[in-house]
Structure prediction request, 160 residues.
Amino acid sequence: MKKILLLMLALGLGISLQAQHSTNPYEGMLSFGSGQFFQNGKRLKMSEVIQLTKVNEEANHLARKARTNQIMSSVMAYPGSFAIGWGLGGALAGAPIEWGWVGAGAGLIGAGILFQSAYSKNAQLVTEVYNANMPYASNYRPLQLAFGVQRNGLGLSLNF
Prediction:
């Protein structure tokens, strides 16, 4: 009886099961959302995305195309906003509205929206093409069960 109690006490106090820090199977994957690129929870600049995708020629081409669309969107939208403001700003001072400026501004903003849409589409394609070659969720890692000294004393360690 004493041997059983001693064995139970030793097992109860000495054995500790500890899991290892599991690696995220999606680590290193590129994601796109809200008009921004992310990798491992960190926001990436467009130059970093282009540098990152140099390992995949197709993804790099799409990233450069997305950057061009993003720049063209800004080039069209900012002057368009200015033109609308210029055309309507005269009305605040009592002058008539200059519809030519307003129309030109609306056209530039419309073109900017089309470029922004193309940017979003190409950016999504960048993530799909880049992540297609990522070895995730198929990594086989063998389990190892080890008995030895742990932080809390003697115990079992399950490594995966």
Q: What stands out?
A: The longest strand covers residues 144-150. The beta strands are 18-19, 30-33, 36-39, 42-44, 144-150, 153-159. The chain has four helices and six strands. Residues 57-92 form the longest helix (36 residues).
